[in-house]
Amino acid sequence: MVDIDAVRDWLGRLPGGSLVGRYVDDWDAFEKLDRPVVTLFGSYDTGKSSLLRRLLVDSGTNIPGWLTISARHETFEVNNVEVGGCIIRDTPGFAVGASDIRAQNNSRRAMAAVGLTDVSIAVLTPQLATAERDVLQKLFTQGWPVGSMWFVISRFDEAGVDPEYDLAEYRELSDRKVRELRELFELDDRTPVFVVSQDPFQTAGPDTDLSRETWDDFRGWDGMRDLADAFEAVSPSALPGWRHTAGQRYWTAVLDETMTVLRRQLSDYTARAEVAATGVARRDVWESELDTLDRAAQASLDGLVEEVMRMSWEPSSGADRLQAEIQRTLGEWFTKHELRLQRLQQSIRKTKERERARPSWAGFASLVATLGSGEDAPTTPAGLGCAAEHVETVGTMLIGMLKAANNTHGPIAGGKASSAKAAGDLGRHIGIAEAALPLAVYLAKVVDEQGADRARLNQDKAAAEKRQQVVTECTERTRDTWQPFVDDVREAIFAETRDQVDLDASLRQLVEQLQEAAAEGEGLFRAGTVPLLETEA
Questions:
Q1: Residue 281 and residue 349: Cα distance in Å, rounded?
Q2: Nearest-angstrom CA–CA distance, 89 and 41
Q3: Closest by CA position to 341, among listed 372, 296, 399
Q4: CA 316/CA 450 separation, integer angstroms
Q5: Dist. CA 302–CA 308, nearest whole Å
Q6: What is the pLDDT, as a whole number, of residue 265?
Q7: pLDDT classification of 211: cutoffs 50, 70, 90
Q8: Least confident of 46-55, 259-268, 307-316
Q9: The CA-based dihedral angle spanning residues 252, 258, 264, 269, taken in that order and rounded to the nearest 10 degrees
Q10: Is residue 233 packed enough to be buried (19+ CB in 10 Å), middle (13-18) or exposed (0-12)?
């Protein structure tokens, strides 16, 4: 048992927004029904619709237009019809492990309907449960009052024995199948099990314009009388107890399924947050390496220009020789430090290639694309609600939360654009050694202009200060030429890590909130110390 009020409060405080309104609406609509709700459920083609048709015809109730009988998958929605004092629900056949969207939606609607019912009827073929065994077993442990969970072994005229020729063997086979079913699910004698042939030998086929006399020849053995009597025995006086336990089943299932969703979302977003944190750490490391390279380059530049200028003041230095020496010296400096930049770039490129090859990157890239697309996530399918029905809704709420958080810092650029730019930057050859030529021309020109006063410049204090000024100016020009190439590498680092850095804070916050919500949900489970496995009506 769970504290329903606490579960509702918890649902209202989930990260990204409240889910409680969706579940309350579904529950309130069910709780207002003043007659017992009986739900037929089971896998596709177990005969639920033909069973309902037989019940309607035998009771003199008109067959609604939505009820169709076919060998194909025909029921796609949950539909209600009144029979006597009950509301009977026909559900889509659920498909265990289905991959197509329609089958998954059908399964969700069917399971949601079972969560909002007073009496459930599991309809099985004579082969009994196979793939759906685990699904049925889970349902049986959700707290059903004695006598509120029924089983119908349907279409028994197809079981392999013709009752028209050997009724005794038919009934023996029927008894054996009932025993097998009770053993399969460990059912005691208080659980009603019916064996029926609702349309023997497909007498009615797909027709819906039928009379009760259609099946008169088979009533002695088709088992429908016992099932009809059980419907007539459903007492409204048991309704309060059934609704109470239905509430426990429903809200426990909501808590269980929502926790399943939260755990998966927590796992997914934890992985994405780790990718983002890795990007932040790598940006810091790469920037630190770049800063170290830049400082080393600039430190080695100090004194280099002054040494070249000192050589230029020697009387033996000609203009051509001076320019060649300046170009050689600065060219060596540029080449040396260009190589170091290229090594850093190669390291960045290889690291990002390895990172993008990891499975965790695909999830992060998908999130970035979603946030950058500006498109809303898919809406929840229509139909009876349950936690499984709202899986997409939980994801939508979290995406909306991330969009809101990151819009305050500017829109997400998207992985493709930023990665493409970064790849282009990292693949470009800087070629900064060529920058030495214009600097050499400039320095040679300055020195040539001072050529007539070289002797004075070497002796006069004021002239020496002028010389230092020229050295400082030339050094700054060299640094100005170098800086754009450092900036290019820094921009490439930013481009490679932009999405990770932009999302880091919001992802860390979301993971913390999901952890808190999951821990609180686990606490609600632990607080339900009274097991609701079998409750007397």
A1: 16
A2: 9
A3: 296
A4: 14
A5: 11
A6: 93
A7: very high
A8: 307-316
A9: -140
A10: exposed
| Cα(283)–Cα(495) distance, integer angstroms | 10
Please tell me the chain's helix, strand, coil percentages from 3-state DSSP, rounded to the nearest 5: 65, 5, 30
Average pLDDT over residues 316-335: 74
Contact 128, 177 (CB under 8 A): yes
Least confident of 50-59, 115-124, 197-206: 115-124
What one-character-per-residue DSSP string does 367-384 give?
HHHHHHH-PPPPPPPSSS
Give φ, ψ of 164 to 5 degrees: -70, -25
Query: What is the DSSP-derived secondary structure letter of residue 186?
Result: T
pLDDT in tens, 371-424: 887 654 444 434 444 444 444 577 788 888 888 887 655 545 544 444 434 444
**What is the token pair recorded at 49?**
């619709």
Residue whose tokens read 């459930």: 120
Cα–Cα distance measured from residue 389 to residue 34, given in angstroms and rounded to the nearest whole number:
26
Q: How many CA atoms lie less than 13 Å away from 52 in the CB half-sphere?
A: 31
Residue 460 pLDDT > 70: no
Residue that is written with structure tokens 């889509």 in the block: 92
